[in-house]
Amino acid sequence: MPSRNHFYTHSTRAVPNSINPINSISPINPFTLVLSLLPVLTFSHAVLGATASLLPIADTSLMESFPTNNLGGENVILAGVGENLKRHRALLRFDAAGQLPAGAKIQSASLTLELAWLPANGYSPSTMELHRLFRSWGEGNKQSPTNCTSCAGQGALAGTNEACWLTPFAWTTNAWTSPGAAATNDFVSDISASQTIYKFADSPYTFGPSPAMGADVQAWLDNPQANFGWILLGQDETVKFSARRFWSRENTNFPPYLTVQYLVAPLIDRVQRTGRQLNLFFTAQPEQSYVVEFRDGLTGGTWQTLANLGYFSETTRVLIVDPITAAQRFYRVVTY
Q1: Between β-strands 115-117 and 87-94, what pairing exists: parallel, antiparallel or unpaired?
Q2: Which of 286, 258, 236 is CA-nearest to residue 55?
Q3: Whole-angstrom Cα distance, residue 182 to residue 262?
């Protein structure tokens, strides 16, 4: 059984004498309720919570060879060092707050990239790193000229507020700390995740999961205003032929995607007294396990198990019935 060191709880207090009877539901025999819960009384040995796959809401590349060019509309992103020892760095941003439930607890996060190109004149294995960005940037919409076969991956002159090597917002006074973005001021110096990129046969490549990536996504979920995404760059930017191109979000067949596993905090959202029994309602989320607990005092006493519901495979409305036997009782739902 998985550890319960990390769990969410929601508590509610029931004071029988202060609750007015509500007759909108019929009394339920506790034995009947237990029978109705039997199908979900099976525990998983690897409960990892719900899973979501997020596509980028923005991605682009910074190119030292073309310091005023933008590549936000291209179907590839670039990172690593070319044969001319010029650096490339990629920017990616995901909408955690818009695509994950508010209040969710992130358990793990990983980024998957599909390789699109290797250096034509040979290549070196390339270890690449993800770092969380500290500042905003403009994706832009520029593409490489289509009538020039040697221009692939060059982009085009950045428009106002489009990211390029020199600045996160072109033709403004908002420049990177140093061209191409700098650790400490423009992005976190600590690595969120790394991966060694070899050849097509090993693609796609996954960065993480790692504790730092999970913390990044949690921070973006809790504070969307500080979500500036990641920068992808080569670990050793002195190695020729370590450059790689990955498909960007413009390639709908092989876009980057962020896999997030999370728990949703439970909420006892309805309490009813029916005769001498108390009815508690909450919604169980898929891929989570739940235990309903009670104790008679708020600040003291041992939490006791009222219902061990186990693992849910789909969103389920849950009703828990408890006979009223004490002057007051406190309830909580634990998920893991």
Answers
A1: unpaired
A2: 258
A3: 31
Terminal Cα-to-Cα distance of the chain (whole angstroms): 10
Confidence (pTM): 0.77
Residue 229 to residue 217: CA distance in whole angstroms: 9
Residue type, 13: R
Question: For residues 102 and 117, what is the distance between their CA atoms, to the nearest angstrom?
Answer: 38
Task: Give the number of other CB atoms < 10 A from CB of residue 221.
Answer: 23
Residue 221 DSSP code: H
Q: How many CB atoms lie within 10 A of CB 6?
A: 10
Nearest to 124 by CA among 237, 16, 38: 237
pLDDT, average across residues 287-301:
89
Express each pLDDT in 28-81 by its tens digit.
333 222 222 222 222 233 344 689 999 999 999 999 999 999 999 999 999 999
| Neighbour count for residue 122 (Cβ, 10 Å) | 9
Whether 116 contacts 250, CB under 8 Å:
no
3-state SS class at 34: helix
- Average pLDDT of every residue of the chain: 85
- Percent of the chain topping pLDDT 70: 85
The Cα–Cα gap between 112 and 204 comes to: 7
Q: Round to whole Å and give the CA distance between 164 and 303.
A: 57
Lowest mean pLDDT among 12-16, 172-176, 315-319: 12-16
Of the CA atoms within 13 Å of residue 120, those in its CB half-sphere come to 2
**Residue 24: count of CB within 10 angstroms of its CB:** 6
Task: Report d(CA 225, CA 223) in Å as an integer.
Answer: 5
Residue-wise pLDDT for 309-324, tens only, equals: 999 989 899 999 999 9
The DSSP symbol for 202 reads G
* Contact yes or no for 30/278 (Cβ under 8 A): no
